[in-house]
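Q: My labmate handed me this sequence with no annotations at all. I'd like to see what the chain might look like in three dimensions before we decide whether it's worth expressing. Could you predict it?
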Amino acid sequence: MNKLLPTVITVLLLSVGLAWADASPRPAWLGVRIMPVTQQIADSLGLHDTTGFLVVGVFPNGPADAAEILDGDIILQFNGQYVDASHALPLIVRETAIGTEVPVTLLRDGNVMVTTAKVAALPDDHQAASRGSMADATAAYRRGDYATTLQIYRSLAERGDADGQVGLGAMYADGRGVTQDYAAAARWYRLAAVQENRFAQYGLGRLYAYGQGVAPDDATAANWIRLAAAQGFDKAQYGLGNMYEYGRGVPRDDAEAIKWFRLAAAQEYALAQARLGFKFETGTGVTQNYAVAAEWLRLAAAQGVARAQSALGWMYDDGKGVRQDFSEAVKWYRLAVAQGNGYAQAGLATMYVHGQGVPKDLNEAQRLLQLAADQNVKGAAEYLAKLRSQMPR
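A: Here is what I predict for the chain of 393 residues:
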């Protein structure tokens, strides 16, 4: 696939104290994680050219932190030298004497500014400090300790760790352990997304799709979601399929929608399996095939997708794509009814009306039809009225 950015390995190499692996044990250190500004990054950030390096993380209490360099800044010059080659900045920092105060020219929010940084020695425990912290964050999250989770994520995120950034972004998006703030979520997602983190790319795409924390922009949403989908993220593949199906941010294209649904379904993503089932049931974008529809719907139904359970119940009820089997129809209808699915409520009601797969029970049929009518299921209210009119007075 076409890469948006350098690989994560490149990012890590550039970030380790801005020095090479074969340098001295205590190389010069600026205390930032950086990425070269590619054309794709420039476009995503609204930059006019690819000059400089994007700061994707600042180590707390390091030289850059003391110089008030921020995530998202573009470093244009270091100690009077322009940095416009892929490894120029690490080399320049490496060759700077520890303790030297140097001017650093930045681009921030469209404005050029100059700050002064005092180059330090790379701390011995600099790399070890962050190892294992994601496991700690996960454990804290699972036990509901969101304050600790947030603290760990923030520590990692501020060091430029993409997993920490996407975790912190998700905390802001969900409002867990912190006041919900979609703009903050977008900021952290973006920093991780430009490091090719597929979860951040998908999360940022969703924020653009719903206009949360950023101006709504379906085309930008589709671009970010496509990057995540191309990395094999099943939710993104399903989301991109939806965008093609409804023509949001991309031209409407059933063939492309089905392609992405298939990729997600192959990873056992239940909603994609269900969507394929409905495509084959209706013949939308594919040749109508009830048997294939039933296969996909069965996979989704087994994973608990209520709409798939209801549809599979109907197929057994009507003998579409499967051998007619009222007991199987009732089984799948009931599973969907347990999740409040209105179509399953109406379908199961008809089984009680006719005594198919269950004993005939008009009272239970009326109860189910009322539930379906309350959800505005088409025909449920009319069927209920007709049934009541035929009941003995």
